Every structure is written in C-alpha cells, then in structure tokens.
Amino acid sequence: MRVRKAIEIAGIVQGVGFRPYVFRLAAETRVGGFITNTAAGVSIEVEGSEDAVTAFLKRLPAETPPLARITSLAVRDLPNNHDEAFRILPSRAGEARRALISPDVAICDDCRRELFDPANRRFRYPFINCTNCGPRYTIVRDIPYDRAKTSMAVFPMCPDCQREYSEPRDRRFHAQPNACWKCGPHVELWDRDGHAIATADPIRSVVDLLATGEIVAIKGLGGFHLAVNAGNQASVERLRERKRRVEKPFAVMAPDLAGVEEFCHLDEASRRLLESPAHPIVLLEKRLPERLAAAVAPFNRDLGVFLPYTPLHCLLFDVGANGVRPRASAGRAYPALVMTSGNISEEPIAIDNQEAVQRLHGLADHFLVHNREIVLRSDDSVVRVAGGRARQVRRSRGYVPAPIFLGEDLPQVLAVGGELKNTLCFTRGREAFLSQHIGDLENLETYRFFEATVQGLARILEITPKLLAYDLHPDYFTTRWALAQADIPRVGVQHHHAHIASCMAENHLEGRVLGFALDGTGYGLDGNVWGGELLAADYRDFERLAHLDYVRMPGGPAAVVEPWRMAVSYLFHHFGRDLWNLDIPFTRGLDRRRAETLLKLSEGGTNSPLTSSTGRLFDAVAALAGVRGKVNYEAQAAIEFEAAIEKSASEDTGYPFALHEDGPGWVIGTRPMFQALVEDLRDQALPGRISRRFHLGFVEVLAQAAELARARTGIERVCLSGGSFQNVFLVQHLSARLESAAFHVFTHADVPSGDGGLSLGQALVAAHRGPGR
Question: What does the alpha-carbon distance between residue 638 and residue 629 come to, in Å, rounded to a whole number?
Fold first, then answer.
C-alpha cells in the first residue's frame, strides 16, 4: 500500500547538513517527496510504500548529522501525490519562528585536511568551511538561515562553489558561508594606522611579526583578538601595559593537544572539551616550572587554554616563520599565542575593521583583518572540569544561541540579568535562550552592546516579550533600563532567588528546594548586601533560612578592590579595638592611621553598608593569610586563596564556625573561625594550611545549616548557585558532604553558576509570578 506522510521538525536543523542528510536517506529508503527549511525548522513530505516510509521514519531521528538536534518531531497522514523523486525545495517563511540557529562551530577534520592539501583548490584558504563547521550565529541577520540573510550575501559564489552548494550529495550543500579563493572573503595585513601593507601572504607575514614579539590584532569569528607570542615575557608585559590589564590571566591558544600538555596538566574530560565542536577556553592547572612567560597568568595556578577553531588560527600555527609547516613544537615560531579579547579592559570586544583600528590604536602594532562582516559579537566561552563535569564559567561562542531546555511551557519573557558578567535571557515555550556574554555594564560601549543584543535576539527569535524581569538593585543599569520600558509588565526578582531558580531550571526541578546562594554581592530585601544565603525557594517565592553574620564593608565598593579593608572590618567586628593587640603579621603591617580612619567611618555607617557576602569573607581571610591585600580583577583574592590550599595535609580539621538561631532561621557566626585563625597566624601557619582549614570549616558549617533547615522544612533537595561556586574545592567538597548526609544535590553545568546565569533564573521567577499565574 502506498502512503504519504507530513513531518514537521523543530530544533537545530538548519545550517548543519540536515537537508542533504534527509535527501540521501530518502534515496536509500526509496521514497519520494520533498524537504524545505521553514521559520519553524524543516518541513518534510515523504511518499512511497508503507514499508519504505516506515523505514524512513525510523531512521530519520536516529542517524542525524553530528551538529543537528531535533527537539520535536510531528507526523501526520496526507493523501498521496504520486511523487516518485525526492526534492529539496527553496526555504519558506511566514510562520512563527521556531527554528534554532546553530552556534559557531570549530573547523572540522575534513576541512582541516583540505586546508593543508596542496592539491585542493582551497589550499591555505583561511575561510574554508562546510555544513559540519564554520560560522553560524555570528554571521546571521535573520531566519530562515539562508545565505541571503547572512553577512555572506555580499559574496556571490563562483561556479565551482555554486556547484557544491547545489549538489545534495556534497558536503557543502547549502553551507551558507561556502566560499573559496575566487569568490569569498579575504584577509589583509594593516599597519597600526589602518593602512594596507603589501604582502603576498598576510598570514605568513603575521607569523613573522608574532615570532619577533609584535602584538597583532586578529579578526576572528566573533570579534578581534590581541595576539602575542606567549613565550616572550617582554611582549606579554607590553600587552598588559597597553591593555591596562595588570594581573588578570590571559587566555592562551595552543597548536594542538600535545602543545597543551607541554605547559598544562590534561585529563581526559578536558581533552574532550578542548576538541569539542565549541572549542572553548578550558581552565587547566599549569605544569611547574612554568613553560610560558610568567606574565601570561601571574600568581595563578591555572591557565585558560584553547585550540585553533578557525582555519586562520590553524594557519597561524602550521606555518613556521620560513613558511614550512613544522611537525614539532621545537620548530614552531612560538609555543603558543596569547589570544585575548580585542578591547581595553571591560569594554566589549571589537568586531568592525575600522572600529578596531580606532579602539585598538596604541594596543596593536599591526592588524590582520578580513572583509566578512561580524553581525553578532561573541567572546570565547570559558569552561572548567569540576566534580567530573564540564561547567560553564562564561557561556558564549560555540554554545550560544543553543537553548536551555526547560521542564514546562513558559510565556515569552525577557530577563535582563545583573550588572556584572551580564547576559540576557529570552524564554519561548520550553526553550530559554541565554545570550552571549555581554560583560560588566560599566561604559557606554557595553550599554550599546546590551541594547543591540536585546534587539538582535528578539528579531532572530521573533519573540515579543510579555514580561520583563530585572534585578532589585535600584542602581543597576539593567534595572533602570527595565523600569524605563513602560509598555510591558515588569517583575523585580531578588538576586539570590534568581540564582537558585537558575539552578532549578537547568536541572528541571519543580517544587521547593533548599538553595545555597553564595557570591560577592546582591541587593537584599532588607537593603543590605547579601551573598552568603541559605534559602528555601521555589520559582514563585523564597524564604531566607540562614545567612552569614553581617559585617561592615568599609568604603563600599572600595572594599571589593582592597580586601585588607574587609580583614580590618571582621577583626574589629569580633575583637573591637583589641585587634591592635592580636600580634599577628597583618596588624603589624597595617598603616594604623589609615585603618583607624576606616574604622571611624565604619562605626558611623558612612559609606559602609552591612554585608553577608561570601566573597567578602573570603577576601578578609585571604588578606589575613597574606595572600592578597589588594586585587586587580574581580575575585582575585579568592582565586589565589583557593589555589594556595595544601593538597596533602595531615591537618583535616576545619576552622569552627557558629550557628545562632535568629527568628525563623539561623545566622552563621564567624567569631570562632577568626579566633582560631588568629591562633594559627600567631603560630606562623602558612597560607596553604590556613586556606585548607578555612575551606573545610566553611563546608562543614554550610552542611550543618542545611541539616537544620531540612529538620525544619523537610526539604532534601539542595541547589548550589552563585559565583562562589566557581571555587572547585567548595563545589566538590560541599556536594560530597551534603550527599553523605542523604541530600540530593544539584549544581550548574550548562549555565554559569555566577551572574552569567542570573537572567535564566530571573526569567523563571517572572514567568511564575506574572499575570495569570
């Protein structure tokens, strides 16, 4: 019997070789019909014998291309149309847009082989790609994802490329960025003033420049990188000085896994991450003594490392200064490259050629540019392995705009995130779309990037939000922006509630959970700065069950960049003026006059808000231990304090904390901990021992607080969220301690635990609190 079926598929099915896959499957199963891209995904009709159509339907979801992801598949019967052949029809639009655009994908093995094959017509072509790799999100203007709606529209294909593009059996069938030397984008080498430099091979010229210590701005997929030889100490220091980045680590691009192993320890999970289609920056422990310039990541245990993910990157490593492809690192022009965002610190990454010359003038000695427009800027993603899982630190290139899939249908919500590490989130049905990393909203350029991202994602997703979610902090730019949007209902969401809701959403949890929200800052319901919180929460509401004891933040924001202030504040909080009699290195080294001025301001409450912040507690102990009294980037003291932990220590007793009942909950008291810490300091304990004892004690008191909360509420599920859980020791040891006490523990992996995941939680809370809920 002959049958015909209509099949509607949603998911990541455009730009990933899905239509040629279906064309080949139709030929193998001997069915007729057609496939076409739609604004919702793809639409297929197949006709043939009942057995042939059944075989087609069985194989269709099971053998999809590696980059494809089916999120829904609906089949219905149709009357026969007597189709014998199977065709690929032009895309059609006009429906609700549900298609998912693929993230940008690192160069595949097939394209890499062709790139270095002298017999291939794309030999050394820096924009080689196919349906399995190349730019996607960063070049798209609209959907359906067709060439005319990307920045490749201005490059008409030559006959050879057009033939590949039109042949369903070809690897480049409907590869929208398809191009070659004859018809595609090209690179140019410019001097620091933006004037073209005559050279037969710009990339080989750049290799020579980098080998001699020059700083080169290189245009990539989502923006410019500033590149410099990672083995050249003087050049790296010069880049730091120009970029105004004093000590914050630089990311490093290594040529291959063998190159990574020369300067970092590498486990199997990290290997898989480095070679995954996203090719993110992976945080890895350095080998000692250091093999690269010490200025790459000073005072830091880890390096952020990634592999070449574009053909241009591959050419930078596979071409020696003499133009010969070396086989070993000893023959390369450099062991690795610093590849840091092309910007002045805290500004968005540059994406336009002329913009780059203007903004990076004085930073770069030369520019390697190309003429393919970057439509949507996107920084590199950062990932680390902790507790056996890959965990997002910064979710951006290679992952965005793939959705986070939710456990329920939600209305269309826009959540605008917080002030630091900002991301946006749009929800639509069971999908939540986190934007690429926008950054800290501290300057006009980042504000514009924020607004452009709102408009760009809304257009591509065709979402018209029915609700707008924002943080309660009245001075956040995102809060002021949200409150100015008078034509849409708005829902304010407490910062730490949003963190817990984000973890719940990622793990598809319903009902109430216990949640530790630990971070540096968040506006509390009492007007104080929260950050060391145990909540009982669902998506609608929360109850604060426990928190770190309040202490003054002398100087407000100044205490964040000068941890010694928090050390003084905690000592004064617990010992009063007797802090001067403690006889510890910290107080002996203090400028007493300056500290007394600070204490007077603090006593009067002048510019000294109360805080329960975990970040500020870590800062105080790190300063007392002699790790860091001032910081040059966010969380530097806590990062270096964690790195100092003794790995093999006979002393496994953590510092004691206290738990005091306070109304409906508890306060985590720090006085016993500081008393024990002072005794260790008097005994000249090393920072590694202090760090280990502090971390162990903190884990234990958190677990005890959770047990008290369970006894009162009956809740056995615990979510861990907030920026402090980027501390690997903390997330691993607290998870293990809670699980040993029969809790069910949920953590972040696909969404950052810090403020980069905040907007997801905001969206979920707003959706459950909004009109009609």
Answer: 11
Q: What is the pLDDT of residues 40-95, one digit of tens each?
A: 789 999 999 999 999 999 999 999 988 888 888 999 999 998 888 999 888 775 54
Give, for 403, the enclosing helix (H) or strand (E): none
What's the token pair of residue 331? Answer: 């023959």
* Backbone φ, ψ for residue 469 (5° rounding): -110, 140
Q: Note whether 10 and 99 are within 8 A (CB).
A: yes
Strand 366-370 versus strand 187-191 pairing type: antiparallel
Across-strand partners of 196?
Answer: 190
Cα(435)–Cα(694) distance, rounded to whole angstroms?
36
Residues 6 or more apart whose CB falls under 8 angstroms from that of 543 comprise: 535, 536, 537, 664, 665
Q: Among all chains, which residue has been given the structure tokens 């234990």?
A: 700
Check: CB of residue 80 under 8 Å from CB of residue 125.
Answer: no
Whether 722 contacts 521, CB under 8 Å: no
Strands, sheet with 69-78, edge to edge from the N-terminal-most edge strand = 69-78, 2-12, 41-49, 32-38, 86-88
Interacting residues of 30 by C-beta distance below 8 A, sequence separation 6+: 48, 49, 52
Amino acid at residue number 566? M
Query: What's CA 605's distance to the chain center, in Å?
Result: 37
Please, what is the end-to-end C-alpha distance for the chain in angstroms? 50
153, with CB counted inside 10 A (0-12, 13-18, 19+), is middle
Please, are residues 769 and 526 in contact by the beta-carbon 8 Å criterion?
A: no
At 379 the pLDDT is 96
Paired strand residues for 382: 281, 394
Alpha-carbon distance of 747 to 758, in angstroms, equals: 14
What is the rounded distance in angstroms from the CA atom of residue 561 to the CA atom of residue 287? 29
E strands, 234-319, are: 251-253, 281-285, 302-306
Q: What H or E segment, with its residue span, contains residue 662?
A: strand 658-662
Residue 90's Cβ-count burial label (10 Å; 0-12, 13-18, 19+) is: exposed
pTM of the model: 0.93
Question: What pLDDT was estimated at residue 71?
Answer: 85
SS3 517: strand
- What would the pLDDT profile of 239-286 be if each residue is shown by its tens digit? 999 999 999 999 999 999 999 999 999 999 999 999 999 999 999 999
Contacts 24+ apart (CB under 8 A), 387-391: 387/728, 387/731, 387/732, 387/735, 387/747, 388/269, 389/747, 389/749, 390/269, 390/273, 390/749, 391/726, 391/747, 391/748, 391/749, 391/753
**Gap between the Cα atoms of 722 and 420, Å rounded:** 12
Which value, to the nearest 10 degrees, does the dihedral of the CA atoms of residues 561, 567, 569, 575 take? 180
Q: Mind listing the pLDDT tens digit for each residue in 680-723?
A: 999 999 999 999 999 999 999 999 999 999 999 999 999 999 99
Q: Which two tokens stand for residue 679?
A: 């005794």
Tens-digit pLDDT profile for residues 482-533:
999 989 999 999 999 999 999 999 999 999 999 999 999 999 999 999 999 9
Q: What are the percentages of helix, strand and coil residues in the chain, rounded to 5?
A: 35, 25, 40
Closest CA to 337 of 370, 357, 360, 314: 314
- Alpha-helical (H) ranges within 714-757 are 728-740
